[in-house]
Amino acid sequence: MSTNAALKPAPRGEEHWTRNDDAELFLWRKAPESGAKAGTVLFVHGSSMASQPTFDLQVPGRPYSSAMDYFVDKGFETWTVDLRGYGRSDKRAGTEATIAQGAEDLAAATDYIIRETGAPAFHVYGISSGALRAATFTQQHPERVKRLALDAFVWTGEGSHTLDNRRKKLPDFKRGERRPIDKAFVYSIFNRDHPGTAEDKVIDAFADAITALDDSMPNGTYIDMCTNLPLIDPAKIPVPTLVMRGEYDGIAGFDDLIAFFARLPNSDKQFAVMPGISHASFQQKNYMLVYHILHGFFTQPEPIYRGD
């Protein structure tokens, strides 16, 4: 890794706002000063943290802790959005924040970005329930997705130890709209599968950034993932797709993902196992490996020949 990466100032971010029906949505943009030549990336967060802590984390002494900064440095315009119920976006009472609503919020966010920038299509990355939201959005708006990356994804949920444990708390999730979170909860994300895959200083920074915006999270995605899977039909995802699985990730059953991958109709597809990684891959010790895989997929040339 270049030492210059640690010295380079972070690209300037811009806040933007749009609406989905009556819900206000916060968007965050970072882009190269010279203009985006590589395309536009849309990052989609998961169930237990808002967008900026996940994709624009700043950790002193850890170059490119911000995935957005990394991809800006590679020539991409980058966007992320707090889906309803999270971060700076609408958190009014009655907000379920289901997978389906998250996909609707992504449609509203891309409506706005297209109006602002004219971007014809997006490289979309989603992690955990964000991968489910991104896949749902892609089913509904395939013309807006150039390439799709699904990290820590679940299809039927078979073989998911995390979901097996989560179902034991399902009655509690159904009783309320939100569940409390704190720094100890954030640490549990990294310790539940394989402790040691992330540095404490990174987990601390991540936890501080998450809890600065939220002291609770909506239950909608947890309920969906415990009771309503499968939500995605792989046959309805026509775009080039990358399925990413951390070696130690307890939420993404390997055989479940392979079965999903086999049913993807576009032959331009990849399956990547990321060694030494559990959940929350951008916050892991091996995060640069994750960026490398993702960047390679987003910059892959289009095939010249596809056969008859």
From TrEMBL:
GO molecular function: hydrolase activity
Keyword Cell wall biogenesis/degradation among record annotations: no
Pfam family, one: Hydrolase_4
Keyword terms: Hydrolase
Residues of the Serine aminopeptidase S33 domain: 64-282
Matches recorded under SUPFAM superfamilies: alpha/beta-Hydrolases
Coiled coil: none
PANTHER family: HYDROLASE ALPHA/BETA FOLD FAMILY (PTHR43194), PEROXISOMAL MEMBRANE PROTEIN LPX1 (PTHR43194:SF2)
Protein's recorded name: Alpha/beta hydrolase
Species of provenance: Ancylobacter defluvii
